[in-house]
Recover the amino acids of this structure.
């Protein structure tokens, strides 16, 4: 079941066209999802409630290193994608290698682009492209107390204290 949720960009474009033709609302989000935690799950469940289909684009290992530094990701891209695909709220997952999701969004043209509440002061760089093709941008509340970077720090600190 999980493997059928993992799609290439080309296959995902075809699926999005078919869903749109059926009048289904496509919701799209993207991120590193390096160490999946309850904050991610709550966010993805809330995103799924905004439409009929939830597509998650996972940053490639290369793009995570560019965003987070040379020690990340902790979990390889194929594993991150597989874990996300196992979630009931996620319909499809793809991996992308660009520094932003703008090109992918323009190709897929989902109805709703969702990002987490860490974008409350500025909007995502992809927002203009989404609005240009007629899509909506939604910022969902950030689940406080959950952060992959904080988890990594806690793991390192616990290893140093032993």
């Amino acid at each position: 079941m999980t493997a059928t949720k993992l799609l290439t960009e080309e296959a995902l474009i075809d699926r999005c066209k078919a869903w749109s033709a059926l009048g289904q609302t496509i919701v799209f989000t993207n991120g590193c999802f390096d160490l999946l935690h309850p904050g991610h799950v709550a966010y993805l469940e809330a995103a799924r409630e905004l439409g009929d289909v939830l597509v998650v684009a996972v940053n490639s290992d290369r793009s995570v290193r560019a965003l987070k530094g040379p020690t990340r990701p902790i979990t390889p891209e194929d594993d991150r994608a597989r874990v996300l695909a196992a979630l009931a709220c996620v319909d499809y997952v793809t991996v992308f290698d660009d520094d932003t999701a703008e090109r992918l969004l323009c190709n897929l043209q989902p109805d709703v682009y969702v990002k987490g509440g860490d974008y409350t002061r500025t909007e995502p760089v992809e927002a203009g492209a989404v609005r240009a093709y007629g899509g909506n941008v939604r910022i969902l509340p950030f689940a406080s107390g959950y952060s992959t970077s904080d988890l990594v720090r806690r793991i390192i600190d616990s290893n140093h204290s032993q």
In short: Residues 9-21 form the longest helix (13 residues).
